[in-house]
């Protein structure tokens, strides 16, 4: 019931302004975001690596309409990649990039700016010995994001993308991307979407997720199964073995701070597990989407705002 209002608030600049003075160390934020600085996220990556977990790192920010901000975000990724290389962590960590944070929404030439900035990040990732995965934002960006993916893959075929099971189109997108060399992160989808493009009931999203899993795990690509849902994890495991896939020919992915004991359990079983770790000061939209998934956490959030 609270999902819709929380997702609407996730795009409210006024509410963002109101809460964005809150330090990242405050309770609920800290449970999903390990810190603001590059050092903080690199330290978190090292701790995960000590526990046998891989990471994908996201410099928080989205929907920018400012070309300088898009450039600053690109530079932040370059600094991050350099720091990961210095710490010897590029075998266990890659980066996740939201195209709207690097210029996709800029008027006139947003698509082109985002493509060029993404290319810069892909080149730095390649030089550092790691990869980039493009996050997927709301459905209005899907075509542009998949077009940018195709362009990037000409020079950087290791680039991955996210597909969202809640969209009607996604099963077909999975078929198109289930080819050799392709890396697809399958998630349920975190945005508020209209019913003409997306399944509205959880059960229908779950059914779509399973159909997409079947396509990806039977395909030639590298599926990245991004979910905390125990049923989806179980179904993915049995589909993987039914398709003769060994652990390592696919991976499980979960968000930092969500079901950490399950992340470690799967890794201890020999599965490849990657944790999505966001960092930075622009945590508002990310946090609101996490609260929308688990409105029980709203009480903690409000309490931490009041006690600030
Ligand atoms: P579901 O929401 O049904 O949750 C299953 C269980 O997980 C819950 O019962 C609860 O135990 C636990 N859980 C879920 N959310 C929680 C929370 N916030 N706090 C505490 N516990 C929680 N989306 C998108 O639109 N674009 C993207 O690019 C990405 N990228 C991405 C990367 C990775 C690695 C992951 C894991 C997820 C994403 N997502 C995403 C988010 C995704 O679409 C989805 O919103 C969340 O993963 C929640 O969906 P689940 O599959 O976990 O199932």
UniProtKB/TrEMBL annotation:
<feature type="binding site">
    <location>
        <position position="164"/>
    </location>
    <ligand>
        <name>FAD</name>
    </ligand>
</feature>
<dbReference type="InterPro" id="IPR015659">
    <property type="entry name" value="Proline_oxidase"/>
</dbReference>
<feature type="binding site">
    <location>
        <begin position="188"/>
        <end position="190"/>
    </location>
    <ligand>
        <name>FAD</name>
    </ligand>
</feature>
<keyword id="KW-0274">FAD</keyword>
<dbReference type="InterPro" id="IPR029041">
    <property type="entry name" value="FAD-linked_oxidoreductase-like"/>
</dbReference>
<protein>
    <recommendedName>
        <fullName>proline dehydrogenase</fullName>
        <ecNumber>1.5.5.2</ecNumber>
    </recommendedName>
</protein>
<keyword id="KW-0642">Proline metabolism</keyword>
<dbReference type="InterPro" id="IPR002872">
    <property type="entry name" value="Proline_DH_dom"/>
</dbReference>
<feature type="binding site">
    <location>
        <begin position="227"/>
        <end position="228"/>
    </location>
    <ligand>
        <name>FAD</name>
    </ligand>
</feature>
<keyword id="KW-0285">Flavoprotein</keyword>
<dbReference type="GO" id="GO:0004657">
    <property type="term" value="F:proline dehydrogenase activity"/>
</dbReference>
<dbReference type="GO" id="GO:0000166">
    <property type="term" value="F:nucleotide binding"/>
</dbReference>
<feature type="domain" description="Proline dehydrogenase">
    <location>
        <begin position="43"/>
        <end position="300"/>
    </location>
</feature>
<feature type="binding site">
    <location>
        <position position="289"/>
    </location>
    <ligand>
        <name>substrate</name>
    </ligand>
</feature>
<keyword id="KW-0560">Oxidoreductase</keyword>
<comment type="pathway">
    <text>Amino-acid degradation; L-proline degradation into L-glutamate; L-glutamate from L-proline: step 1/2.</text>
</comment>
<feature type="binding site">
    <location>
        <position position="290"/>
    </location>
    <ligand>
        <name>substrate</name>
    </ligand>
</feature>
<dbReference type="Pfam" id="PF01619">
    <property type="entry name" value="Pro_dh"/>
</dbReference>
<dbReference type="InterPro" id="IPR008219">
    <property type="entry name" value="PRODH_bac_arc"/>
</dbReference>
<feature type="binding site">
    <location>
        <position position="136"/>
    </location>
    <ligand>
        <name>FAD</name>
    </ligand>
</feature>
<feature type="binding site">
    <location>
        <position position="98"/>
    </location>
    <ligand>
        <name>substrate</name>
    </ligand>
</feature>
<dbReference type="GO" id="GO:0010133">
    <property type="term" value="P:L-proline catabolic process to L-glutamate"/>
</dbReference>
<keyword id="KW-0547">Nucleotide-binding</keyword>
